[in-house]
Design brief:
Rossmann fold; alpha/beta; 239 residues; nine-stranded mixed sheet; binds S-adenosylmethionine; 36% helix
Length: 239
C-alpha cells in the first residue's frame, strides 16, 4: 500500500490506463457541476433513504467513483462515512484534491481492501462491478445501488457517431443473477447544455471518440443542445 501526499491510498503497483484520461475526469466533473447528473443523484439519495436505515456509523462505498463529484454530493446529502475506489490514479488524484472527508483509494474493484461484511451501502454508477467482491464485503442487510445507462442515454451523441441503440439487458440480467433486486427506477430527462459547456460534454464520454473533426466543430458552434439523460437505477440486496 502506498500513501500519497495528497490524501489518498494507492493500492496498485503500476499505473493502469483505461478509456478515461485526466481531461475526461475534469470535464465530467464540470458537467456534473452544472447539474447534468442532479436528477440521477436525487434519485439515488431517495433510494438510499427508502431502503436503508442510516446512522452515524453507516458506511458508503462508491465502486468506480471516477473523480468523485457524484460520491461527494451523495455523501454531503446523507452525511455518511464515505469511501471511493477507482482504478484510475488521475481520477482519484482529482477527487482527493477537490473533496475532503472521503477516503479515496486507487484500486481495482476485483480486489477491494475491505473486510468481510463491512459495508452498508454500495453505489456503482456507470462503472464495472465485481459481484464476488460485492458479496464478500456487503453486510447481510446492506444494499447495492447500481446505475446503468438506459437505451436513450446520450442518444444525440450516439446518433451523430453512427452508433446503434444501446441495450442494457445483459448488464441488468447479471444484476438479477447475482443479487436480489428489490427496487428499480427508470429515469429520463433532457439537460440543456449551453455553448460554452458543450466542450465538457464532448470530452466526458468515449462515445465522442468516433466523431470526426467537422462534426465536433459544428457541435462546438451551436448555441445550445438538449441532451437525453436516461438511466436505470437498480437497488438490490444479497440473495
Ligand atoms: C463512466 S466512468 C464513471 C465514473 C463515475 N461513477 C461517474 O459516474 O462519474 C467509469 C469508471 O470506472 C472506472 N473503472 C474501470 N475499471 C475499473 C476497475 N477494474 N476497478 C475500479 N474502477 C474501474 C474508470 O476508471 C472510470 O472512472
Amino acid at each position: 500500500m502506498i500513501l500519497q501526499k495528497k490524501g489518498y491510498v494507492n493500492l496498485l503497483n503500476k499505473r493502469t490506463d483505461h478509456f478515461y484520461d485526466k481531461k475526461m475526469f475534469e470535464d465530467r466533473n464540470e458537467l456534473s457541476n452544472i447539474g447534468f447528473f442532479d436528477n440521477l443523484i436525487e434519485c439515488i439519495e431517495g433510494k438510499i433513504r427508502d431502503n436503508y436505515i442510516i446512522n452515524e456509523h453507516t458506511i458508503l462505498l462508491d465502486l468506480g467513483c471516477g473523480a468523485g463529484m457524484i460520491t461527494n454530493k451523495i455523501k454531503n446529502a446523507l452525511n455518511l462515512n464515505t469511501y471511493g475506489v477507482d482504478i484510475s490514479k488521475d481520477a482519484i488524484n482529482k477527487a482527493a484534491s477537490d473533496f475532503e472527508d472521503i477516503v479515496w483509494i486507487v484500486g481495482d474493484i476485483s480486489k477491494l481492501p475491505f473486510k468481510e461484511k463491512s459495508v452498508d451501502i454500495m453505489i456503482n454508477i456507470l462503472s464495472p462491478i465485481n459481484y464476488n467482491q460485492v458479496k464478500r464485503i456487503l453486510k447481510k442487510d446492506g444494499i447495492l445501488i447500481k446505475v446503468i445507462p438506459g437505451s436513450e442515454y446520450l442518444k444525440e451523441i450516439r446518433q451523430l457517431s453512427g452508433l446503434k441503440e444501446y441495450s442494457n439487458r445483459e448488464v441488468f440480467n447479471l444484476v438479477d443473477e447475482n443479487m436480489d433486486i428489490i427496487d428499480t427506477k427508470d429515469i429520463s430527462y433532457k439537460f440543456n447544455i449551453l455553448q460554452n459547456n458543450i466542450k465538457y460534454l464532448i470530452n466526458m464520454t468515449p462515445l465522442t471518440n468516433k466523431l470526426n473533426e467537422n462534426t465536433i466543430n459544428e457541435l462546438l458552434n451551436i448555441s445550445n443542445i438538449d441532451i437525453t439523460c436516461n438511466f436505470k437505477v437498480i437497488v438490490s440486496k444479497l440473495k
